[in-house]
């Protein structure tokens, strides 16, 4: 006899298959009913602090394995891949965005869409580095539906993992990309239009917040302030500023 839990798991499995088909067709899934949303909002999640002392994890590989096929919040139901992060475990510079988008979710890598290609050009053409020399990740590891902003609870569940990533890497500088990531790391009162380009600190590491590459694509006038922010990072790292970048 099938238990209610097994029936529920089968329903969720079917829903995930349907969402995947919508993604492959490039379509947004139909909105959930108010009853479904109310149920999802009530679902309890397991606090990370009760699962394991993250301080015992010493490598990115161990942390990725610990996160595993995460089901700690409802975002896991609609994802295709969890996007942990990528780059050098000894990176001097870490870029932190808000969450994976559609292309990142399909591939399982951070910043591989149009905004990611712009970020790669900034790293390689502007800074004179290789993408694999830095580390790139997001505050939230799973794609929110329709690329909406991550909710407070989703950020709170994922933030300990990001903190441990940064503690393991111990970069010299963190570059925060966009308002959502900046508020997650620096506080909800942070205003990207007013406070970008100013040095802050997270986990004792210098932080430079700037506009998200996706914002720059929508607003070309943001290219200049982003480049000014990048130049500050380069100066902090002792990199030569390319005049023709």
Structure notes:
- The protein has 245 residues and is of the alpha/beta class.
- The chain has a single domain, classed as Uracil-DNA Glycosylase, subunit E.
- The chain contains 11 helices and 6 strands.
- Strands 1-3-2-4-6-5 form a 6-stranded mixed sheet, with helices on both faces.
- Strand 5 and strand 6 form a beta hairpin.
- The longest helix has 21 residues.
- The N terminus is likely disordered.
Low-confidence stretches: 1-6, 42-51
Percent of residues in helices: 40-55%
Any idea of the CATH class? Alpha Beta
CATH architectural category: 3-Layer(aba) Sandwich
* Beta-strand residue percentage: 5-15%
Number of domains: 1
Number of separate strands: 6
User: How big is the Rg?
Assistant: 19 Å
Give a quick account of the main beta sheet: strands, pairing sense, barrel closure. Answer: 6 strands, mixed
Number of helices: 11
The structural class is: alpha/beta
Oligomer type: single chain
Helix-strand pattern: HHHHEEHHEHEHHEEHH
Query: Going across the major beta sheet, what is the strand order?
Result: 1-3-2-4-6-5
Shape call: globular
What's the average pLDDT? 87
Through-space gap between termini: 66 Å
What is the H level of CATH, i.e. the homologous superfamily?
A: Uracil-DNA glycosylase-like domain
What fold name stands as the CATH topology?
Uracil-DNA Glycosylase, subunit E
């Amino acid at each position: 006899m099938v238990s209610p839990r097994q029936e529920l798991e089968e329903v969720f499995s079917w829903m995930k298959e349907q969402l995947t088909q919508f993604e492959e067709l490039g379509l947004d899934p139909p909105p959930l009913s108010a009853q479904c949303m109310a149920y999802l909002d009530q679902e309890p999640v397991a606090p990370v602090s009760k699962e394991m002392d993250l301080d015992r994890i010493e490598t990115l590989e161990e942390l990725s394995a610990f996160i595993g096929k995460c089901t700690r919040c409802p975002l896991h139901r609609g994802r295709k891949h969890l996007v942990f992060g990528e780059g050098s475990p000894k990176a001097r510079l870490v870029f932190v965005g808000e969450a994976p988008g559609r292309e990142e979710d399909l591939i399982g890598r951070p910043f591989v869409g149009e905004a990611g290609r712009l970020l790669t050009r900034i790293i390689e053409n502007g800074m004179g580095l290789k993408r694999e020399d830095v580390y790139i990740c997001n505050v939230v590891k799973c794609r929110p539906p329709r690329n909406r902003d991550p909710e407070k609870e989703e950020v709170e569940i994922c933030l300990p993992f990001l903190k441990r990533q940064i503690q393991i890497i111990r970069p010299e500088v963190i570059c925060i990309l966009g308002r959502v990531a900046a508020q997650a790391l620096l506080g909800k009162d942070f205003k990207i239009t007013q406070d970008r380009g100013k040095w802050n600190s997270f986990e004792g590491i210098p932080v430079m917040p700037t506009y998200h590459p996706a914002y720059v694509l929508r607003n070309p006038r943001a290219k200049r302030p982003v480049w000014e922010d990048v130049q500050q990072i380069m100066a902090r790292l002792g990199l030569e500023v390319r005049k023709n970048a």
